[in-house]
Design brief:
The chain has one domain. The chain contains eight helices and no strands. The longest helix has 32 residues. The relative contact order is 0.23. About 4% of the residues have low confidence. Pfam families: LysE (PF01810). This is LysE family translocator. It is found in: Cell membrane.
Length: 196
């Protein structure tokens, strides 16, 4: 292993495992629908984030840095998207856990969230700015990021699956979902307002 790869892997680990909106939604999804049903959103979210690293490495990051209005639009779109997801999670709090009517956080939603999440774009700019080097082409950095992110997000789903064991009755599920919805809202809007 190249000495320059280990710091990048550690950065990718911290960026992927730390709490954030996508990880909170995967936690809730894992608790409600299980690990198997969470695999598609996990793969989709991680692939989208790795794709963003790749796109930024190809030059899209410079375009975004030169257009602050585009950054603002992405920030607001991300906060509004997360608010909608939090509202759905909050409203679904009293529904049966395994009911087919319970709305799932699907692969499309997971990928879309990454595309409007300014934190993912800033992370990608940091990856390319700090770790891109002639010996590590951009596609390899994106691939390594994907391989590190998958088990990290999988750990959040497993945490959700484990928490489901203690959430047998409807009142506990209601409180759990409402708490996650509120944390998701705080996460989305505090990131937006701190950048304003």
């Amino acid at each position: 292993m190249s000495p320059s790869l280990l710091p990048f892997m550690l950065f990718a680990l911290v960026a992927s495992i730390s709490p954030g909106p996508t990880n909170l939604l995967i936690l809730a999804h894992g608790a409600q629908h299980g690990l198997r049903a969470s695999l598609a959103p996990i793969v989709s979210a991680c692939a989208a984030a790795a794709g963003i690293v790749w796109l930024v490495g190809l030059g899209l990051g410079e375009v975004l840095l030169r257009h602050p209005l585009a950054q603002q639009v992405m920030s607001w779109a991300g906060a509004l998207w997360l608010s909608l997801l939090a509202w759905q999670l909050f409203r679904a709090a009293g529904e049966p856990v395994r009911a087919s009517t319970t709305r799932r956080f699907g692969a499309g939603s997971a990928a879309s969230l990454q595309l409007v999440n300014p934190k993912v774009w800033l992370m990608a700019v940091a990856v390319i700015g700090v770790f891109a080097a002639p010996q590590w082409p951009v596609w390899q950095l994106a691939l390594v990021f994907l391989l590190v992110a998958l088990p990290c997000m999988g750990a959040w789903a497993l945490l959700g699956v484990g928490s489901a064991r203690w959430l047998g009755a409807a009142p506990q599920w209601r409180r759990f979902n409402q708490l996650l919805a509120l944390v998701l809202l705080v996460s989305a809007w505090s990131a937006l307002l701190s950048g304003a």
